[in-house]
């Protein structure tokens, strides 16, 4: 075998350097996520957002770790999710898998914002979210946003998403991301509040039609630190309608089939 040329040697060195830089970036991202997961109450930094009073709704916004949910709160969260989403799951290729949903909702990594009526103590809605790595990028992933029927379209959902964004961006997450079912007409709400098709969202082709899409909102303060491929792919995705199959991974080993109302 002949000796390597100077050009091939330089190219190999450049690839090794790129791998090292990527590994270092992922290590740093893991550290950021780990620090966020140590927080006792990320809502504590935003006292103004712990109360909602608008459109006839007066509610307290409460933070809970999954491990701190009461049995009543666990049953309520599952019941509300089932009421809002079971039929939509059953009408697409995923189907409704209650044991899997229970496991997801009560996972130790799950975090909750709960809206509770100040007047009568009734539960009104919740968001289930996690600090995680998504394709090597530190994100706050919103698994669920579920509201009871009588408080929908009154600004509470938008308010809760604003809280998630504040929590995410204060704690150096580079994106807020979420998965939505295409057959859920309520999901257009997320695009109305500034979420765009994520570069990781799969595109239907002749072989497969995907029942979901992935949306995200980038932390503008940290946009320059995103891998260039992420930004360019996102741009091309929106401009040209091209993307790639959903293949992201999470630190805790779970994917993100949380579909939002």
UniProtKB/TrEMBL annotation:
CDD domains for this protein: NAT_SF (cd04301)
Source organism superkingdom: Eukaryota
Chemical reaction(s) catalysed: N-terminal L-seryl-[histone H4] + acetyl-CoA = N-terminal N(alpha)-acetyl-L-seryl-[histone H4] + CoA + H(+); N-terminal L-seryl-[histone H2A] + acetyl-CoA = N-terminal N(alpha)-acetyl-L-seryl-[histone H2A] + CoA + H(+)
UniProt KW Acyltransferase keyword: yes
Annotated ranges, domain N-acetyltransferase: 73-217
PROSITE patterns linked to this entry: GNAT
InterPro entries assigned to the protein according to its UniProt record, in alphabetical order: Acyl_CoA_acyltransferase, GNAT_dom, NAA40
Subcellular location: Cytoplasm; Nucleus
Family label: Belongs to the acetyltransferase family. NAA40 subfamily.
Protein name in UniProt: N-alpha-acetyltransferase 40
Organism name: Dendroctonus ponderosae (Mountain pine beetle)
Lineage: Eukaryota, Metazoa, Ecdysozoa, Arthropoda, Hexapoda
